Amino acid sequence: MKVMILGFGGVGSVLAKLLAKEKEIEEIICGDIKFNFRIKDKKVSLKYLNILDKNKFLIFLNKHKPDIVINTSLPKFNLKIMETCFKVGVNYIDTASYWDFDSNPKAKVPYKMEQLDFDKRFKKAGITGLINAGVSPGLTNLIAKECADKLDEVDFVKIRLVEDTASNELFFSWNKDWLIDEIGFKPLVYYNHKFKIMESFSGEEEFTFPKPIGKKKVYYFCQDEVGSLPLFIKTKNLDVKAYDNNIEVSKLLVKLNLTSEKEIKLGKCKIRPKEFLSKILQDSPPGYERKFKNSIFAISIEAIGRHNKKKKIVKYSVVFPKQKEIDKMNLGANFISYPTALSIKLFVMNFFKIIKKGVFPPECIGKEIRKEILIELEKSRVYISKANG
Fold first, then answer.
1. From the DSSP assignment, how many helices (H) and strands (E) are in the chain?
2. Number of folded domains in the chain?
3. Going by DSSP bridges, is the β-strand pair 128-130/358-360 parallel, antiparallel, or unpaired?
4. How far apart, in whole angstroms, are the C-alpha atoms of residue 107 and residue 227?
5. d(CA 172, CA 166)
6. What pLDDT shows up at residue 65?
7. What pTM value is reported for the model?
8. Is 30 a residue whose pLDDT tops 90?
9. 108: left (phi > 0), else alpha (psi -120 to 50), else beta?
10. Distance separating alpha carbons of residues 339 and 343, to the nearest angstrom
C-alpha cells in the first residue's frame, strides 16, 4: 500500500512512524511546507508541498498516485484536498471537520460537515472518503456504533473524554489554532431527536472513568461526533462532555472574547482577537511533552436503552498510555498525538476491506470490519474496559 500524509506535524510524523512498521505499507510520502521532524526510514520520504497551490498539488498527486491521501493538517484544508483527490481518483482520510455554521433554516444539523458535499462525486469516481477518522472524532464514533448495536432501542449515547496534563502549566498537545477554534465554537447536543446549541462549558456532570482516572467533572464540549452520529444511529439523545484540567484557562479566553474572529478597532488598527491570541501564544517546542510525564487521555462511551424489553447500559472505555509510557516508544509523540495517530493507523490498515464508496464517517463502517479494528485496538498499548448491565 502506498500512503500519502499531508501535514507533518505532531500527528502526521507519529503516524508515519507507526505505518512504517507495517509490512503492508510499501511507501509513505509526507507532504508539508516545512519539516520540524526527520525520519530515518527507507519507506518514508519528505516532500515540500503547498496544497494551496492547486496546480502544483494536482501535478504532485498525479505524479505519486498513492492509494490513500491522509489529511493530518488543519481541517480547513479538507475541501481543497478532497477536490484534488476527486480529480485524480484517489481515496481520502481526514481527522475532523471544519464545521461551517449552516445558515439554512431547513438544515438538519446547525454545524455543517463540509466533507459530505463530496459524497456523490466520490461515489461517481468509485473512491472512498473516510472522514473524522482520528481518535475523537473517529474511534469514538466507531465505539458508539458498536455499543448502540447491542441494544434494540437507544435512548442516550454519552461520549465522555479526559484530557489531563496533570499540571497547571499550559501545553499545546494539538495545533494551537485548531484548539482555539474548538474552544470558541459553542457545543452541539442532540436531545429529544433535535439538535441544539448549548453554552460553552455548561452541563456540568460527574462521570466515572476507569482507573486510574476515576470520577471527573465533565462539561459540554464542541465535538464532531454530535454532528454525524445521530444521522446514522437511531438514538433519542446524544452528547459529548469532556474533562480538561486547565478548563479555567479556556473559560477565561472565551469570557474575554479572545476566541472571536470578528474584527475590533484598536486605535487606527483592526484586529481579530483569535489571530492576536494565536500570535502571542507560544507553540510547545518538540520534546516539551516529556515534561508532563503523568499526562493522560481517555475516552468512554455509554449507550443506554433496552434489549429484549429490559433496560440495559453498554459501556466501552479506552485509557491510553501516560506520557512517560509513550516516551519509551521513541515516537516523538505526546499523550494526544499518539492516540490520534494510533487510531488513524487502525483505520488505514483496514481501509481496503471497506467496500462502500462515497464519503462517510467511521460509524458507517461495516460490523465485521468494525470488530477487526477493535480487536487490533485491544492488542495495542491501551487499557480497555467493557461493561454490560
1. 12, 20
2. 2
3. parallel
4. 12
5. 13
6. 94
7. 0.93
8. yes
9. alpha
10. 6
